[in-house]
């Protein structure tokens, strides 16, 4: 037990105030063991940059391999040529990489310096006030003051705010991308706070990267513990809004803050192509060793075949020649040095350059730009672009991914009576047009609505016209720079149901009696207005936001963004708090209060909701006159249809969690003084014992109807709690909130304890509309051979309806609904279904056909299907399903499904989602794509790519994915071919020089050949080649299948290219050999036409592979040839004794005067490339036959015309 207690205590930390120890040496400071607030994200220092960078680069085995060869070449017994020459290639590669790393590290240093020197206010006991310091001066235990529009420098426990209710509003956009305001509450017990009076000890958990979780408590001198959670923590990087100032106690600083722990930098994944590349590099190593072994063995045989020692074999200083066996052993290593370029040293650098270029083309594609949000696609994983062309399974979230996540209030049921809101449905039907027209419709038709439906005559005035007119702005302005999330007219405008409106009007007319105050209808709408976490602010109070261009979003690091934001927003100490000297509106320290009531109208209230569901319900309540006026941690004010304002005392808020699947607010009714619990949640509320059976039954029927229409459903309930029960429960709740160990379970238990025996009030149906072109995108992905799964937390009925609407499920599909409570039931369903599949496949009539089968499974059944006993059967079943719909699944289930399919079926997977609940799934897939939607940016921050709409997947995969994969695969194969073809020239020559590792080409020209003459064309090939046009790829999605499975880069493709390289090298070597046979030409005269022919063959080989020629192609290809002749002619003219004892002087000049030189070049090129040209020509003929097929063009033209028509309609 002692060890356990020690371990538990070791997981916590105790923090004291630094003020009593101010001025003392560091050794006497109580918080000296914790890091300072200064951050350092750089990897290198100026003094140790070179050794540290080399150490980093030598983690690559390829660099170690080439450095080892360089060292080997310095050994006299095995060197193949001048050691200095061998240094050039690896030094160039290492230097370029070091320059890139140095530039990136210098940018990190500049960013760190900006952040560390940003100003802030720290309390000084000596000066008895807050003094201006820098962020780097902040330490754990300090008291820091933050003012409006200022970025928080460290993780602070909020102790005091200028708001009388102890509330501080913050914006977390720099952390999670969420633009809605969030409330933070000061720790209770400090109404009038002075830093020097703080004498408690803060006990909290050790630093972690969970942005939504914090456990701690403040222990006062009397041993009383006051709990503190995430609701009292101000995170570094957040911005204070609508609050004049706040004071906090530094809990975590510097690298221990939650924002820094989440700043993991860009993700580096290994693509499937890269894994295949490593295998082929290993094959090349084996091939190299085989060739060197042949050379060593040949040299041994050649030496033994000599009757006497030839005079040109000069003995070493000892005067004795080494034995043939030892000489052959040395020759093995010499041959490795000579043939080292068989392993392409520049391949890895070329791949990085090509991928950077591919990312540039993807991010600058105008079709992937979203005008509404003024955003473009973001590529965060720099080295898996080619995987986009090999996807076989897509796992998608539903809400916010397939749908817009713009929640529209559609229907409701109150006490068993259903209200369909037909008028609102008509309005929404009119709005099913391009969004550019949406605001015009609202400006024309929304204005008269208050006259007809107004519950408050004072609202139907000129201000309403102004309010709607203010919405007339461009799409970019109205959305990208909107101050409030979930506030489009589509979401905020609700036309009340006539019948329900009349009932509410009759109930609320006149002075309300006690019985009317407890009317179920009034309780229903009070629950909609109260049971949420919506923050209320004034529409006239503008928040200062950081406006970041799309380019900055893509290139700037989070630290750089924080730096810019803070520099712009920081107010000097001499500036009056709450007053903005830059022309902005001053910060409002308080939400609207009752004293402001004469100025309050429905139009100048601004609702900041954390989810679109909450916003939709609050706006629905507002449409019926139940207007949420203000909210503080201790109270909430609602104006009734009669104009009377009710101020509810908020006793506690039971937040939503995935286990309870509900949230509740406990209030004291201002008239009845009763303790009332308002709850909203899933259908499990219907099981409460306080419900009347007939109402529960009818409401369940309404819920089923809503779900079949694809609506999101919520139940609304209430409970009156006695004072005695509340007091007992309150004690348990406080103890749970102050607990450190098992705090989450204890807090949930107290919530479950109170949320029993609820009385059902009604239910709501909210529509989440499909995004644009979702059915077309899913259809195209299916035709491309990609299976689409949808993993959602919605009810099966809702999910199935959306599945049919988006084309995931079709009418002719055989839909299998798996819903099993017991394991044996799940086993039987799997066995029976698999037997049916086997029978179908065994039937001779079903040859070459596939059964259109889809699966719908809920989370409970999925848990059983993924158990070890049933996992293989489940995977066998889903292999035959063309669509799978998983409902009521948790985030962990989502990630597990992705992992199971990826590992069991060995397929390439892609996961796409928009919310925090999709992060696990996104990170589990080979490629994770985040959608920057309505629920913040958690998914985007965890993803490899970020898009604005689901429809962008179509072009991203079918066009860019195909191009990236085919370009890179063909470039890699070409690199291997090029190096093998060139190095084989040296290998064939060994058969005629006694395997002595002699080269007939000058060493400098050999190095220039790979570094300069033939390096740029393959990079250009990997960047710009288009084997198929974008229109063809979009029109015929089936073409995407060429990249799936093994794709273009197959085992056979690699070895065919290697064999072709062997053939071409044989031609390139033996054509000049037979031409110059029995002549007395020197070695370099023999090698120069061979080197020139190799250049033409290798470049012409690439010309055959290029499918689309542009001006850039011609310039680079002709430029490479011109560069070869210019450099070689200059080198031959000036280099007399550059490489003794050989002499390349004036070799090429002499050769170019000989007609035989041109004959060799032409004949070698034609004979070497003839087989490849014939094969490529035959394949092109087959392709032309397919393209000339009437059926093919019928399908393509039909689809192309349809796409053109849709585009024209949109324009």
UniProtKB/TrEMBL annotation:
Identify the domain of life: Eukaryota
ATP-binding: is it a keyword of this entry? Answer: yes
**Protein location:** Endomembrane system; Endoplasmic reticulum membrane; Membrane
Its membrane topology: Multi-pass membrane protein
Where Mg(2+) binds, per the record, is at: 397, 399, 914, 918
- Tell me the GO molecular function terms: ATP binding; ATP hydrolysis activity; glycosylceramide flippase activity; magnesium ion binding
Name the GO cellular-component terms: endoplasmic reticulum membrane; phospholipid-translocating ATPase complex; plasma membrane
Top enzyme class? translocase
Disordered: region residues:
453-489, 542-599
The positions annotated for binding ATP are: 397-399, 614, 656, 680, 712, 792-794, 888, 894, 917-918
P-type ATPase N-terminal domain location is: 30-85
Q: Which cofactor does it need?
A: Mg(2+)
Instruction: Enumerate the InterPro entries for this protein.
Output: ATPase_P-typ_cyto_dom_N (IPR023299), ATPase_P-typ_P_site (IPR018303), ATPase_P-typ_TM_dom_sf (IPR023298), ATPase_P-typ_transduc_dom_A_sf (IPR008250), HAD-like_sf (IPR036412), HAD_sf (IPR023214), P-type_ATPase_IV (IPR006539), P-type_ATPase_N (IPR032631)
The annotated active site, in chain numbering, is 397 (4-aspartylphosphate intermediate)
Residue ranges that the Swiss-Prot or TrEMBL entry lists as coiled coil: none
Q: Where is the composition biased (Polar residues)?
A: 476-485, 548-560, 569-585
The similarity comment for this entry is: Belongs to the cation transport ATPase (P-type) (TC 3.A.3) family. Type IV subfamily.
Protein name as catalogued: Phospholipid-transporting ATPase
Q: Which gene encodes it?
A: ATP10B
């Amino acid at each position: 037990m002692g060890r356990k207690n020690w371990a538990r205590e070791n997981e916590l930390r105790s923090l004291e105030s630094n003020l009593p120890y101010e001025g003392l040496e560091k050794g006497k400071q109580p918080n000296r063991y914790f890091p300072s607030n200064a951050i350092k994200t750089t990897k290198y220092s100026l003094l140790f940059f070179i050794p540290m960078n080399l150490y980093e680069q030598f983690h690559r085995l390829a660099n170690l391999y080439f450095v080892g060869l360089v060292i080997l070449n310095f050994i006299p017994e095995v060197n193949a040529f001048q050691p200095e020459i061998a240094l050039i290639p690896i030094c160039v590669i290492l230097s370029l990489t070091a320059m890139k790393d140095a530039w990136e590290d210098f940018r990190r240093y500049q960013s760190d310096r900006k952040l560390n020197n940003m100003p802030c206010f720290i309390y000084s006991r000596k000066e008895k006030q807050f003094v201006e310091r820098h962020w780097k001066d902040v330490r754990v235990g300090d008291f820091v003051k933050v003012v409006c529009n200022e970025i928080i420098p460290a993780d602070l426990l909020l102790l005091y705010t200028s708001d009388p209710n102890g509330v501080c509003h913050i914006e977390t956009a720099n952390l999670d991308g969420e633009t809605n305001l969030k409330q933070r509450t000061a720790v209770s017990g400090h109404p009038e706070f002075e830093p020097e009076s703080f004498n408690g000890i803060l006990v909290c958990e050790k630093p972690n990267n969970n942005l939504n979780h914090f456990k701690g408590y403040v222990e006062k001198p009397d041993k009383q513990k006051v709990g503190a959670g995430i609701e009292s923590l101000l995170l570094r990087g957040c911005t204070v809004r609508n609050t004049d100032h706040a004071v906090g106690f530094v809990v975590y600083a510097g690298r221990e803050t939650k924002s820094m722990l989440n700043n993991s930098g860009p993700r580096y994944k290994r693509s499937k192509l890269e894994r295949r590349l490593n295998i082929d590099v290993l094959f090349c190593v084996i091939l190299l060793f085989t060739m060197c072994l042949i050379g060593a063995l040949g040299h041994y045989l050649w030496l033994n075949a000599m009757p006497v020692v030839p005079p040109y074999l000069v003995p070493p200083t000892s005067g004795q020649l080494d034995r043939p066996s030892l000489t052959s052993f040395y020759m093995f290593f010499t041959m490795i040095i000579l043939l080292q370029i068989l392993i392409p040293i520049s391949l890895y650098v070329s791949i990085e350059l090509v991928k950077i270029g591919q990312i540039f083309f993807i991010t600058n594609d105008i079709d992937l730009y979203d005008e509404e949000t003024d955003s473009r696609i973001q590529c965060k994983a720099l080295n898996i672009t080619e995987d986009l062309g090999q996807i076989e399974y897509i796992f998608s979230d539903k809400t916010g991914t397939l749908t817009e996540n713009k929640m529209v209030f559609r229907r409701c049921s109150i006490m068993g009576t259903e209200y369909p809101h037909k008028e609102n449905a008509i309005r929404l039907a009119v709005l099913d047009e391009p969004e550019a027209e949406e605001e015009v419709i609202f400006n024309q038709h929304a204005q008269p609505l208050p006259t007809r439906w107004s519950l408050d005559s004072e609202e139907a005035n000129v201000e309403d016209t102004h309010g709607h007119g203010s919405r007339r702005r461009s799409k970019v302005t109205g959305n990208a720079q909107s101050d409030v999330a979930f506030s489009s007219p589509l979401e905020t405008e609700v036309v009340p149901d006539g019948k329900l409106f009349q009932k509410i009007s009759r109930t609320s007319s006149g002075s309300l009696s006690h019985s009317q105050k407890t009317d179920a209808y009034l309780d229903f709408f009070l629950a909609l207005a109260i049971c949420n976490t919506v923050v209320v602010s004034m529409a006239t109070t503008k928040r200062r936001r950081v406006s970041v261009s799309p380019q900055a979003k893509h290139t700037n690091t989070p630290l750089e963004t924080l730096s810019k934001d803070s520099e712009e927003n920081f107010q000097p100490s001499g500036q009056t708090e709450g007053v903005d000297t830059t022309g902005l509106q001053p910060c409002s320290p308080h939400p609207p209060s009752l004293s402001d009531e004469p100025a309050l109208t429905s139009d100048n209230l601004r609702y900041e909701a954390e989810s679109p569901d909450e916003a939709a319900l609050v706006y629905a309540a507002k449409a019926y006159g139940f207007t949420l006026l203000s909210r503080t941690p201790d109270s909430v004010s609602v104006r009734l249809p009669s104009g009377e304002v009710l101020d509810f005392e908020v006793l506690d808020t039971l937040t939503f969690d995935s286990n309870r699947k509900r949230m509740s607010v406990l209030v004291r009714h201002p008239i009845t003084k009763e303790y009332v619990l308002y709850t909203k949640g899933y259908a499990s509320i219907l099981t409460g014992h306080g419900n009347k059976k007939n109402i529960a039954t009818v409401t369940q029927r309404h819920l089923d109807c809503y779900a079949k229409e694809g609506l999101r459903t919520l139940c609304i309930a209430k409970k009156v709690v006695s004072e005695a029960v509340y007091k007992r429960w309150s004690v348990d709740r406080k103890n749970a909130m102050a607990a450190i160990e098992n705090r989450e379970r204890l807090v949930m238990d107290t919530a479950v304890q109170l949320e029993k025996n609820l009385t059902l009030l009604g239910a709501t149906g909210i529509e989440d509309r499909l995004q644009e072109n979702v059915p077309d995108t899913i259809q195209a992905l299916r035709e491309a051979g990609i299976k689409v799964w949808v993993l959602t937390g919605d009810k099966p009925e809702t999910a199935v309806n959306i599945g049919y609407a988006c084309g995931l499920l079709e009418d002719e599909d055989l839909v299998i609904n798996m819903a099993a409570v017991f394991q044996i039931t799940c086993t039987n369903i799997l066995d029976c279904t698999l037997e049916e599949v086997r029978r179908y496949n065994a039937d001779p009539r079903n040859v070459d056909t596939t059964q259109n089968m889809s699966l719908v499974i809920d989370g409970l059944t999925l848990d059983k299907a993924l158990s070890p006993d049933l996992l293989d059967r489940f995977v066998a079943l889903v292999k035959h399903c063309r669509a799978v719909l998983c409902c009521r699944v948790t985030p962990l289930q989502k990630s597990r499904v992705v992992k199971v399919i990826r590992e069991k079926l060995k397929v390439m997977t892609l996961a796409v989602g928009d919310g925090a609940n999709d992060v696990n799934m996104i990170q589990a897939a080979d490629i994770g794509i985040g959608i920057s939607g309505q629920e913040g940016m958690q998914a985007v921050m965890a993803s490899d790519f970020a898009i604005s709409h689901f429809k962008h997947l179509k072009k991203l995969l079918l066009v860019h994915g195909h191009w990236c994969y085919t370009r890179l695969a063909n470039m890699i194969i070409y690199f291997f071919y090029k190096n093998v073809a060139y190095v084989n020239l040296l290998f064939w020559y060994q058969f005629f020089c006694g395997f002595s590792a002699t080269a007939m080409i000058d060493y400098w020209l050999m190095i220039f050949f790979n570094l300069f003459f033939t390096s740029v064309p393959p990079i250009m090939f990997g960047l710009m080649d288009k084997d198929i046009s974008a229109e063809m790829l979009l029109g015929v999605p089936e073409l995407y299948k060429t990249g799936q499975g093994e794709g273009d880069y197959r085992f056979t493709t690699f070895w065919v290219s290697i064999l072709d390289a062997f053939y071409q090298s044989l031609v390139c070597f033996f054509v000049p050999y037979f031409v110059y046979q029995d002549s007395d030409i020197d070695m370099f005269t023999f090698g120069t036409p061979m080197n020139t022919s190799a250049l033409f063959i290798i470049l012409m080989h690439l010309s055959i592979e290029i499918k689309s020629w542009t001006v850039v192609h011609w310039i680079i290809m002709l430029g490479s040839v011109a560069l070869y002749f210019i450099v070689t002619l200059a080198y031959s003219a000036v280099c007399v004794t550059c490489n003794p004892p050989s002499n390349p002087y004036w070799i090429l000049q002499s050769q170019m005067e000989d007609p035989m030189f041109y004959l060799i070049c032409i004949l070698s090129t034609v004979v070497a490339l003839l087989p490849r040209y014939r094969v490529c020509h035959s394949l092109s003929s087959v392709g032309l036959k397919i393209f000339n097929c009437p059926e093919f063009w019928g399908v393509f033209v039909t689809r192309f015309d349809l796409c053109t028509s849709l585009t024209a309609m949109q324009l």
